[in-house]
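Q: Can I see a sequence and its folded structure?
A: Here is a first one.
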Amino acid sequence: MNDELLAAPVATTPDHGYNEDSIRSLDWREHIRLRPGMYIGKLGDGSSYDDGIYVLVKEVIDNCIDEHVMGYGRTIEIKISESRVQVRDYGRGIPLGKVVDVVSKINTGGKYDSKVFQKSVGLNGVGTKAVNALSSYFVVQSVRDGQMKAAEFSQGQLVNDPTPVKTSQRNGTLMVFQPDDTIFKNYRFIPEYLENQIRFYCYLNAGLSINFNGQKFVSEHGLRDLLDHKTDAESLRYPIIHLKGEDIELALTHGNDYGEEY
């Protein structure tokens, strides 16, 4: 065997400075802000219905829906301008001693306890933390039994944490946020996208009333109302069949069309 081959140096690729100092551990807000797509999908400017700013709205409203499903609060009030969102429910209100934690500590929430939330839209403990981290202005306020606790954040960092005060307001939770324009470039909320989202919340939660920018949305019959809205009665083969149980709801009918899609 050729001794020169045995002695030939092995070619290596430069590591470009990859060493222990290259390994970083991010805190919760840094990770969300650095990789927002993992939490809310695409960023966008609000011109598409699935842009991230609408996911932020959904995350806040979902908490209100969970309170309604558990039997607390039949009304949600939503006010949205081109850049700011305000959502108020009349549920139980966040426990006052945990108001800061539930919006700023990842994997923290009441939905891990099946006694408190038998049914819930969100279970991963991220929701409002992502909203908080991705907002230049974020306020959470909880009212429980004559006491109100609020906290203010900016980009996920706590900037104001006053002590609870007495109040005559009804129990429930208020959240106000403004998406960070350094992440969401030139964004604006389009009312039509929001209205469509709110209508579906009502169809899926019969009896829930949502007041959105002064307009009231409510569905008395749930999915049956959805089919009524989406179909023309004259084109149906038979009246809508509507069945509803404790954990299931069904609305069914057929049209006169033929083909692979209905």
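Q: Show me another, different protein.
A: A second, unrelated one:
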Amino acid sequence: MPQIKTDKECILKNAIHLFKVHGYYKTSIADISKACGLVKGSLYHHFKGKQEIGLACLKYLHSHFNETVFIHAYDTSLTNKEQLHKLASEVEEYFLNSEGGCLWGNWALEVINDIPEFKLEIQACFKSWEDAIFSIIKSNYAHIEAREIAKKTIANTQGALMMMRLYDDTDIFLKCIKNTQDLLS
């Protein structure tokens, strides 16, 4: 196989896909290299090993969601209802057009007891999501209630993703997204 020049972002996108579909432990450096069209050793020019790739994937996704999904919560040109609708629609689009569920949710179950750095980053990712929802709904609920609703919304979304995958039924997930959008109705 000819060696292909690639950058970190390409490696991360391929690794995220593999990790979401196969899990952390069942995805090897060789799998990631192959998906990128690289020889195994080439990845080590960018990363020290699989754990560093995994942490970089979590940070990459966190940044991606902050910039493309959660950002709607802070768009002052939109009403709260519009903010919530856009945020929920972006969540819907990402997960319906992305194989393998949620990397954060998957790894929260698979690896957080083994890799403390992953746990901290996953907590930060979910906290950003919670803060975005809280920011949107806080004017319609008491502070503590708004925080609880934000957490519950994320938990429901994660459960709906799991059930959608389990039953190959997107309606389960779509109903959850609709429930999120209706929080301010």
